[in-house]
Specification:
488 residues; 21 strands; alpha+beta
Amino acid sequence: MIIAREVDPHDDETFRSWYAAFHAGATDGRPAALVQNWTALASSLRNPGSAKRRIPVGAFDGDRLIGALLFEYRLQDNLDAVSVEIDVPPAERRRGAGTILWRWATNRASELGRTIFQAELGVPSPPWPGSAFAAGLGFTVEHVEDHLVVPLPYDDARFERLRTEAGDPTGYRLTSWAGPCPPEHLQAYVDLHTAMDQDVPTGGMTHAPAPWTTERLAENETRMAKNYLSLVTMAHTDDGTPAGYTLLYLMPGDPDHAMQDDTLVLRDHRGHNLGTHLKLANLTQLAEHRTTQRFLHTWTAQSNAAMQKVNARFGFEVVEESHELERRTPNLRPAARAVVLDRDDRILLLRFAFGDRPDVWAAPGGGVEPGESLPQALTRELAEEIGLNPPAGAPHIWHQEVVAEGHAAGYAGVINDYFLVRVDTHTPGGSMSAAELLAENVHGHRWWTLQELTAYDGPDVFSPRALPVYLADLISNGPPSEPHLIGL
């Protein structure tokens, strides 16, 4: 049985296995893929900052890690969104690992009250398997950038030709530095970062960045300095007004790649070749600090014609597309439930009475509490409701998503994950008192045979409604290799 669980980045052996799966899945079929190196990612995850939380999650088949999820959410802005990256090595695909990791992500997002999922895909050529997987989960492509690369060391002849064509930056002066921003430029650099966040094309992606502050910039630079050398060139007018900047990263842990990040020229200063002058100045810095790096990467929106033109003049060539995807989902509460079958294949159901609608016969279980896994929630709920301790590794048989009012207060619906629990016989009696059960609308229990479920035509209803059909399939065919998606 494949299960998903968080990986402790301080557990070196397991985290290295997680990174191996992450890297293998992310780079398969993508010769130009740029993936954060192990040292930088380990440092980031082991030393979280105040701006965002990143969680590594593994898909495990026994003790073997066969898939990786990087789950991220911001703490100061974009508070409705999470970012997900799911990577499964080629040899482990089509076994359900990616789907199980996705379910972990949806459950955690629901616990956080976040309803927007965002993802990014490198697509060297269509059709692309990752695109099909994302589309199957309900993602849509909202923004497309070109991923471009130019060889290093940079061509001297091209550099001199560009510098000659650009002429002098009349009316402007350029200042370059490596590492943290000098104090005298700090506020201007902060303001330019805020302008960059507001100016960058994002297509239909949900994007509501918080303004930068000197404190936020200082923390970000301190964290980045542990694994990156930042090379910055800023443009000012002759009277000192900030006009633009460009930012490039060298990664000491990556001997082959450098990364061109932001380039911004404020609107009032466009049309003066400042983008070219900024990039030329930073290429000079790159030549001074470069060691063995062979490729300089950058990303530019296909809709950004001006920067596309600049990149072409600098010799950048497209190696793949970068697709930014988004999925909006209602805020659903995750729950774990047990299909408890005795030796005669009778199923144990609880009767829920609400007064204003028909009673509902449903499997024992309930909502996942913050920080709980599905198995942990199942164990707690069964102990409370029926006094049963489920075995480790109970088969995960059904997955249900219901968008409707009345299922969970404060939520638009529920996500129910059902696990098979076999018993010889059992007399229900949990840690909750009769009064506590009544407070949760539980008005008794009953063991049902499949024949009784099928023949029932009374006023009550079953949850799921087609329970007799699903149970008949389960009894006939046994637990599925991966959970079946079931209806209301």
